[in-house]
Write a structure and sequence with these properties.
The structure is a homooctamer of 128-residue chains. By secondary structure, chain A is α/β, with parallel strands linked by helices. Chain A contains 5 helices and 5 strands. Chain A has a single domain, classed as Rossmann fold. Chains A, B, C, D, E, F, G, H: Catalyzes the conversion of N5-carboxyaminoimidazole ribonucleotide (N5-CAIR) to 4-carboxy-5-aminoimidazole ribonucleotide (CAIR).
């Protein structure tokens, strides 16, 4: 059993994933890492999230960035979203997609590409 | 059995839904209408989409607007997305969320609030 | 006779064209490819579109990106538009120009530079 | 024969048209006024532009605003474009569509909704 | 002792505050509410945050929206930030100010004006 | 005496200047070229504009890009403005500064970095 | 002789002017007020600025907002600029025009419509 | 005792700092330079600002850029803010954070990355 589940929407998000896992390692937080797309792997994603014993989810996605919101709809645990600057708009698309969630399905959005802060936020939540 | 399935993410999207259904009615296209949120009703949405015999989906959503992409991941049929200006950003958030889909899961995005064009596009596809 | 007509507004859009044609080739969809500008070649464009036997049009354009809309005004068939990040604004200009069509002349807009999704959308339409 | 041809893309652009024609009247510039959409009336538009004896074109359009560019591709005379704030983005869409023309097909873009300046610019050109 | 400290940067943020406290009341979460500006009341704010026994902070601010980040620098507990559309930019200013925090000082940003989701996120964290 | 006066706000705008002068040379239009800043050389600029016998002004500027508007306030002749992508915002700053002129002082704005279209527009005006 | 010269680019900026003068009155700072457009009244503006004995200039302008920069080029005294939300873009145009000045001609930009802060900044400078 | 206190929010802002200090050196203005983050070093920052005998503060920060506003809340002296293009949005985030200060706590914002103009503005203030 791990404390945090880290999910990236694409294998190309690796650099941002590392920024998160370096901090988790430093803080001795255990985690599991998966690449699962909300759009391409919806069933595997649902199975993974529902069976995970992690206490907090860190989700990392670019472009239309549905992953954080979909994870938040599959669990009642806290979900952190990291927008990735994956296209030509500097990540503004992913930032808006992750922050502008409808009422009742909250995602904790951090800064564009800021995997480190996603981990620091998870640490704050876990240390409560 | 209907030709088009119209799905709105929120009951508050009714004005944009009407713009689409008026055109469908004029063109004598049969349709079914549902309010199903990608975030709040993921299982009902999946059941509905997988069981639908519609040939084309029209999806209408504001803010982070995950609905069109999620529907596109649940079906191999054409999915049209209509961004709604639901918050304070004039619908730019929804436009980016619907247009900027990852490779392999296409959504046909039309203009902000342009339910009419979603219907006109469905008509073009159905008349092929 | 081909299934898809691929039209780029400029010879410099070649990289995005390739993203579309690779998918069409993989899916064994036949296509014709032309470089025709809505602004510089309006008559050749009109002749080509009106005489084409393709069932779906994929149009690729940057900057003010009038091509998709002009093609949609010349045919009753489905028209897909791909915004290209051709200038210094990351393609936001082309995205808005392609998505924000007036009522009655629909274009199916996909993501900036996402030629692959234009092709995937064409496949969905053709397989109906 | 008139000095200026004023073309609006939609009947709903009337307020901006008036801002232009008031100035033209004050300056005793003769003009003809038409509502012709680049997308809905392409053939009437082409016929009108090619037969017009006006020396300068003022074109007024919102949303994807293809009208100014299409007129500029149909004539070698100066074409002025006025972006209209027709949707929910404050006219940023129309501004970019009118300003960001490809090389070789120039449009003289003025400010959003600034029909008066379109007329003042026409006056400067005509008084040369 | 309360579970949540709700801090608004300005008395004019009351409508957004209510969206949060309605949810907290529904969920029987206890909270304390203060109006404290990061810029106008920095010392009272520091005293309040450091002495608070709340487990989670909900911070609500518009414009340059320094409040969430300043609170996050004063405590090691989780801090949620709600951007308010206080000026003429629809809250884009506050959204960027709250989301784009430097590494090491995380804020959990929710949507513009979405006080309800701030409370729902706090509930998820508290229920862990 | 020359047909066109080309004024750049900064020596660093040379690449965009060349795009204009190449077209003017091709079209055998005579021109004079100056680097004069609206902010750093206001008096030389006023003297130059008022004494110039050119029929059309092409003005090229980045950032807050006051040059085109200031020239338009110094002459009754047509003034064309070219926004330069000089900073980190892709030229959006200069585009807005040049397009959004107040009523009565018109500038003909072309696309970001599009010196060629400034020259093509000047040619259209001169050939009237 | 007054401490501050307040210049608005347009009579329609009166509401923002009042926000500044209320603060100046409260702080017993003497001021002179003029409506002078950088574009429509360049010579009166130059005469006024060069003859003014004010120690600080507060300049208020919307749209392309050249006024603050032009004043800064006419004097070596501190110039404060207030962007006005005069058009349909919420004042983003004026904010960029006032902030993005070229090197050597500084303007002290405050928030959109924030006449009060312009006055508060003037007070800080005068109290040095 | 120095005339100007230059504070950067991060050691990575060095290039922009140099643009300011080169001008201060040229103008023979004495200054002190510190790297102090509003978020990571709030107490050192408060101590430094309150004990500083500088007459003007130049503050340099990227992303959510709280530094200028926090300094302005700690002193009654003039505070100049320089937005840094530190992330993927070209500095638009920092520009808005620095310019859009609440009433009563003014910051004099200059252009993105324009350390030189911050220094020039300080010179104007000091020479009064």
């Amino acid at each position: 059993m791990v404390d945090v589940a880290v999910i990236a929407g694409s294998a190309s998000d690796g650099e941002i994933v590392s920024k998160a896992t370096i901090v988790l390692d430093e803080e001795s937080i255990t985690y599991d890492f998966q690449v699962l797309s909300a759009h391409r792997d919806p069933e595997e994603l649902a199975t993974y999230v529902k069976n995970s014993e992690a206490k907090v989810f860190i989700t990392i996605a670019g472009l239309s960035a549905a992953l954080p919101g979909v994870v938040a709809s599959l669990t009642e645990k806290p979900v952190i979203g990291v927008p990735v600057a994956a296209g030509t708009l500097g990540g503004l698309d992913a930032l808006l997609a992750i922050a502008q969630m409808p009422r009742g399905v909250p995602v904790a959005c951090v800064g564009i590409g800021n995997g480190a802060n996603a981990a620091h936020l998870a640490v704050r939540i876990l240390k409560m």
